[in-house]
Amino acid sequence: MRSWTRGFARNIGFTTNVMAEFWALRDGLLLALQMGINMLEVELDVKVVVDLVLASSTPNKAYSPLLNDCRCLIIRFQQVNMRHIFREANRCVDGFAKKGCT
């Protein structure tokens, strides 16, 4: 699984879909900040990630470092709306992600 930031690929090794989504969220937030975006709409197709980011606690310690990074990045924006969408509603982006991995 790879994660892209500023045009380069980073190998995150073998991991779960939840951890891969956290890496993608973190990279996307960093990219938006670098671009000077201050109001952001985030749609994720992994509901667990949305729920964990929006929760006030961290029940799974394995996710803590990336989850805390994401939370710290989110507060740097003027406004962030985050919501879960079903993968079927996200076919276009999912297709690009799969194509980018090949």
UniProtKB/TrEMBL annotation:
Q: Which Pfam family name is an example for this entry? A: RVT_3
InterPro entries reported in the protein's UniProt record: RNase_H-like, RNase_H-like_dom_plant, RNaseH-like_sf, RNaseH_domain, RNaseH_sf
Residues forming coiled coils = none
- Domain RNase H type-1 positions: 13-99
Signal sequence, renumbered to the chain: none
List the molecular function annotations (GO) for this entry.
nucleic acid binding; RNA-DNA hybrid ribonuclease activity
Q: This protein is called what?
A: RNase H type-1 domain-containing protein
